[in-house]
Write a structure and sequence with these properties.
Distance between the termini: 17 Å
Radius of gyration: 19 Å
Number of domains: 2
Shape: globular
Strand order of the largest sheet: 3-2-1-4-5-10-9-6-7-8
Strand content: 15-25%
Structural class: alpha/beta
CATH topology of the largest domain: Rossmann fold
Largest sheet: 10 strands, mixed
CATH class of the largest domain: Alpha Beta
CATH architecture of the largest domain: 3-Layer(aba) Sandwich
Number of strands: 10
Amino acid sequence: MFRHCIAGVDFSAGWDRARDQLTRILPLLGIGQLTLFHADEPHHRTHKEANACANRRTHLEQLAKDMAESLAIPTEPAYVSGFAASSLLEIATRRQAGLILVANNSHSRGQDFFMGNVALDLARQSRLPLLIIPVDLGPIDDNAPLLLVTDHSPASTRARACFTELLGSKRSGRVMIVNNPEHQLDFEELKAEEGFTADNERLDIGVVLGDPVDDVCDTASELKTPLIVIGKHGSPSGNEPPLGSVAEGICRRAANPLLLIPS
């Protein structure tokens, strides 16, 4: 499905957790090629850092070799000088990647390189699907239902299609429909508009009644879902908000892997 993935690496404990989860989720996402990316940011460069930078480059190259062997897919390193988010997006575009992966530390106090602000910057800016792995990852059951969050807006169309493809013919799923104030419908109309039918035994469908961020994150944790799928509103160059308050809130708070699909 996502043939080529660019994964941001910062050599922290957060990356180690993201690496473990990537190994588990690789078959689900259909990843057949991997690029491991690290950026040497300008404000981190000092004369004392020269040896450390050389060590990180060597470490990245060895990590790529190790993961190519363990995952049995082509894996290459990409070590660049520049700002993390913009450089990663440039590499992903140039190498025609289908997916970007980062770890996220936005709800902890850590200041690690690829955590927090960089992950959220990518969530706002990326035109590619973005897989966010939280550093404080909760319990995950690989066989648990996948979770789709949708608001029956045009921005959710690609996310819904991606969710359907991920489910295939065997997986079960949970659909959480967030009411759109600009498009009020009753439950049956919502299901019809989203294309979900009542006779699909693999789907559990419901409307979010409380706070969307809290309800989605709590449900994901209870299910131990291996993946939350959600659509991204707008674009960096458009007039709409580039992410959406609900999606950004879920990005910040979720303790489960999150796949953000641009509209």
